[in-house]
């Protein structure tokens, strides 16, 4: 791996930029995609490919850019980095997986400097594009780059560690000794790592307490896995009806649906994902004790900055994972449990306590 972000327990996360900016001025770029320009500069898209321009294009997988977690965080990082460089940025939302290559080509044809593709499933299309367009820098979020293209960097995370830390906390917070998770598809390795890490973290906490905690992890089918809030809400409701009192929701809008459902159940707690969802999913605040985060915005921002500086290399860049602050639910976490969690976080991030999850 060519570069590594230091890992640490983040006790505060800055609020994401105003979400409303992301939702304004939507325009259709083709029959199957939609795009938005959000960082105007002195030179717009028409200047891409000229010496004075710096253009950053982002392509989502089939999830929406305003998912309040994964895609949105990646877009915030790309947009912030483009602004800092005095450049221009734009995103395309993929509607159908068959459009991955053509959506990337929309930017390549206009000679964008950097193309960010978001999601594990876009890995093959990104690797192929990096070979086809060697003068463009490619950043693949949640994509392990096993190739040798010097212009392609995968931004990867150790989701098992974030999941394990969240599971450990959940294991100490449950009063019914039933903890659940409503997740996107486990066909996507980062989602699987979140789920398995969460389950193992609960087991670690149960062992410390010398008691049994029932754990149920429910994954969505591969189709529409990250854009199905109704399924997320229904599944969370089923778990609540069975006495589960702490539920982890992870999987774009699908996970958000679960969080919203748990928030309506008095006394139940929920855990968000990817970003600090206290800031992005306010309807979940009544139950949201923390979020298992990956610093997607910071990782993307750093790599785009390296691309601008000419220092970005091929290979893989490992981003931070953490637990978000407890915010208004600090009172739900006793001082003794908070101390235990803090100690466990340091041990997990250092590798002293393994998660037991295979890559």
Explain what this protein looks like in three dimensions:
The structure is a single chain. The chain has 359 residues and is an alpha/beta fold. The protein contains 11 helices and 15 strands. The protein folds into 2 domains: 3-156 and 296-319, Rossmann fold, CATH 3.40.50; 159-294, 3-Layer(aba) Sandwich (Rossmann fold), CATH 3.40.50.
| The CATH homologous superfamily of the largest domain | Response regulator
Choose one word for the global shape.
elongated
Count of DSSP helices? 11
Mean pLDDT: 89
The total strand number stands at 15
Q: Helices and strands, in N-to-C order?
A: EHEEEHEHEHEEHEHEHEHEHEHEEH
Radius of gyration: 20 Å
Tell me the name of the CATH class of the largest domain: Alpha Beta
Structural class: alpha/beta
Helix content: 25-40%
Q: Determine the N-to-C terminus distance.
A: 15 Å
CATH topology of the largest domain: Rossmann fold
Main beta-sheet annotation: 9 strands, mixed
Instruction: Describe the strand arrangement of the main beta sheet, using strand numbers.
Output: 1-14-8-7-6-4-5-3-2
Q: In the CATH classification, which architecture of the largest domain applies?
A: 3-Layer(aba) Sandwich
Residue windows where pLDDT falls under 50 for at least 5 positions = 1-38
Q: Count structural domains.
A: 2
